[in-house]
Amino acid sequence: MKTKKLNALFLIILLFPSLSFSQETKDYLQEVFFGKNSSKILVAAHRAAHNLAPENSLLSVQNAISEGIDIIEIDIRTSKDGVPMLMHDGTIDRTTNGTGKLEDYTFEELIALRLKNNDGSLSDSKIPTLREVLAICKGKILIDLDLKLTNIEPVIDEVQKAGMQTQAFFFDSDYRVLKKIKKIDPALYLMPRTYSERHVKKAIRLFDPQIIHIDPSFYSAALMSDLQARKIRVWINAFGEVDKSLSSGESEVLLDFLEKGANVLQTDQPEFMLKELKAVGLHN
Length: 284
Hints:
Strands 1, 2, 3, 4, 5, 6, 7, 8 and 9 form a nine-stranded mixed β-sheet that branches. Helix content is 37%, strand content 15%. The protein has a single domain, classed as TIM Barrel. The chain is globular and about 50 Å long. It contains twelve helices and nine strands.
């Protein structure tokens, strides 16, 4: 009887090779946000870990993975021929040796360019595609997709083809875009941008999100307590004084910032932040 069951299982795998009983069947985001280490403060690398690499580059993504960062934030636009690629600015002038809008160039034209290092010198890195980023991130790190476009179908398509619906979440301040994403694939995770406590309530009502982006202007212990009771992660930017103090080797500003309860911090100093959080037992 046991032999027959094993033979049947083998036959199923043979006929349906896409089926997997591995760790990939788990919900990656749920594991990171609400698993056994759910009290951990999560570190999000703004434009990936770009202190030693061009921002939004494959190298900056790989650096974040190697450092053990929890989340990368990357900015998504599409080329003239519809290929999702990484670029923050409205033009490619600051970060590449090209000029103009990324959307005005084809994929082939864009990959002929080179990204700039932080000092303005040219690197060997090309503008990466979302597909390339998903390939190196799979099973290793969460991805915040900061949408710099309204044509979101190609982005959703890449995430679905990669089988990474539970490893990426979509960020936008335009709720029309987020509603469109939810309509196309209700299983995808969203992170709505909010601008007030009232706006937070609206975002919860519309999207029932696992994570919400808030601003320091209405960051309070009472709000954090309410959101944590609802099992919603709270994302806040730690730019400015927090990042400045971290780069100087100080942790007091960071610890003061955390007292109200935010548990996902976006930073331009992910390596320093991770080190300080580990030192005080907040990232175990």
